[in-house]
Amino acid sequence: MGFVNLTDVTSGYKERLRRLALFDPLYDLDRKRERDQDNQPIDMKGLGLLTLLFFFEQKLLRHYKTSREDVADFLKEVTNTTYRIDDRQLSRLVQVIIETFRPQTGVKRQYMAFDWETRTETALTYSILKSDHFDREQQRQYYTLDEDGLELIFATKEFYNEFQLSINQLMLRKQLEKGEYKGALRQINEMRIDVESLDTRLDQLKHEISRSIISEETFERYKQLLDDIYLRLEREEEEFQTLRQFVLETKDRLYAKDLHIKEHESYGLIIKIASELESVHYTHTGLLNQTWELKNTTLVKAQESIYYTGVDVFNFDTDINAKIFSEPLPLEAMTGVFTPFLQVETNPRFSPLTFMAEQAIIEQKDAPSDVDTYKIVDFKDDPYLQKTSAYYEALMQDLLEAMTTRQVTTLSDYIDDQNTRNVNLYQSKAFYHFFLILHQRSPITHSDLEDERQTVLTGAIHLLKNQTLSLTERPEIIRKTTRYSIQDFTFKLTEGTADAL
Amino acid sequence: MHYSEQQVIQAFHIYMTLQRDGVVYDEATKVYRADETIRSLLDLYSREVDCVIITAGNALYLIPESRLSPFHVSNDWLKRHYLKANATNADLYLLYFASLIFMGAFYDSYQSTTVTRDFLPSDEWIRLIQERIDLLTSHSEERLIELEKEFSYNWRLIIEKWQDMDDIKESAKKQTGNTISRLSFIDTTTRFLLDQGLLKEIGPDEFTITEKTKTIVESYFMEVEYNKGIFAFLYQFSEEDHDASDLED
Fold this sequence. Notes:
The complex is a heterodimer.
Chain A (H helix, E strand, L loop, with lengths): L5 H5 L2 H10 L1 H7 L13 H17 L5 E2 H12 L7 H15 L7 E7 L4 E7 L2 E7 L4 E6 L1 H10 L4 H18 L2 H32 L3 H41 L2 H4 L1 H42 L10 H11 L4 H8 L44 H24 L4 H10 L8 H13 L16 H5 L4 E12 L7 E10 L6
Antiparallel strand pairs in A: 1-5, 2-3, 4-5, 6-7
Chain B lengths: L4 H17 L1 E3 H9 L1 H13 L2 E6 L2 E6 L10 H8 L6 H18 L13 E2 H16 L3 H11 L3 H10 L17 H14 L3 E5 L2 E4 L1 H11 L2 H17 L3 H5 L1
Antiparallel strand pairs in B: 1-3, 2-3, 4-6, 5-6
């Protein structure tokens, strides 16, 4: 992951939280378990949202006096075909809904959250419904949407994704005009995300089109869709052109006024903006071409759709699987149905003439294989072998010292001995390798060195001088570390060489 | 109809590639679309081996028809390629069983003719298989035995095979094809479908179908004529074990 500018990521965190908080009352309602007279669960969240929409509509129509009774009438009209609710229950429901949006205590609704921008716990207060008017004579209270309520309504309104890019373009222009270059750069990045998601969508569309044009109708639909996309891309393309011009002009202006020396940072930013804009623009142009291609593919595909008619409904699971398994049909039915998915059988056959064909005799090797392990390497050239050899020598030195001065006779004793000395050689893998090799070659004497080749053990064996070291297995398994385990050994050091034994 | 030698050879070249790979792209597709002679030759060739040719965008697929045909992959071939050496027919049919359920999991709605899910996790897959097995078990033992005698097919073997498997083999370190457990069986099926280009892995234990699969289901299974053929193939079996009086009901 590259460098992430934390302040950029968290900037405006509180605002985002606020928008999340607005939805909270709806989820509060969702948790209410209400049932109608047929014991059907009532969709309280939906009723809550409907209530808000009702208030919104009232506002649009300039009906300012909206009371609980009005809400109840409205909800009754909406729900009368879906639920069986009597008036008393309904007025109670309305009360619950209104009280959720506008708590009875008079305290505004609060949303506690941790603000990661300032890294403090913040309480966000908001108010969705407010009291508008009070009619003392009739004991009626009228409500209307508060500011946050309006925002919630707008937040739930579908913002056409298609316009997102245009909006971003507009914002970018404004920011550039105001000289907010840093924000502009971020705006461009958001634009890039838009363009990327558009790219993914076009890709999906491409697959969809190549699979599913099955009638004149769908063809027309796709054609229309592609035309729309194309038009939209063209419009955005124009905007990109003017933006580009604008950025270039800004850049030149900054340069001409020698600002590139005085306002070094701004100038750097505008250069970056220019290049980023170019790159987004480039991807966008790619999309334009892609749509053009798609339009052609669909046309070609349309020619086929004359021959092809699809079924209206098809449910693989029910039509095919259930049919086979519930009868049940013979097993071959499965084979038959599944064959379309499979390839046609191909059998490679052997021809004796293959022997006469050219054979590859060059060994192709990119990475060293296991075989290399057994290759004789020049000892001096290999730092690993040298290191191991030195390590084994040190180990042998330590072991011999422990055996002669502290009467260590077994491997477990030796490890304990290390523990008392606060040495932990036994933690390393090489330690175990060493004893494995020793055990394999036991008894070890000086005469082993007659072979002139230098091995990793040469140094260690030299330390034995005239003695013979033999290792005998003991039944216990030593598990001093979680990673390695080894069988216990008894060490024995005798004077003279193996020949004497 | 008279064909020129050059056209026959050209068609044969395309057919050869189709036969080998099951799919050709771009140039050959263009030829298939533009040249009526070559198209009819290719259709002729493929019909001779009980296959059909389907176009999808810039690709041309050779799809074996749903029926039993000596030209299609044999059970032996599948066993040799995807199952372990001592596999029996029951293993193979269980493989088919799981694969069909896999396909069904993606197309299980009458509301839409496109895929209904993004991916299928393996535990969900096992659950769906179990559901179907339970359904099979609900047939009385006698009926299954009776069917076996009559038509020499053996659902009981498949049921037993599945029921006898543990979900996982606890003593094994990896649940691959070599151990006997449901997960390892799913692994075998996955490898089979992967090799046939029908399945894609999109996450740990998460599988989805490929464009090829979508094309086969949406252009072959859902094409009116082929669709009829498939149902005719399926219903021919049920007609065998019902009396004519059953049909009149």
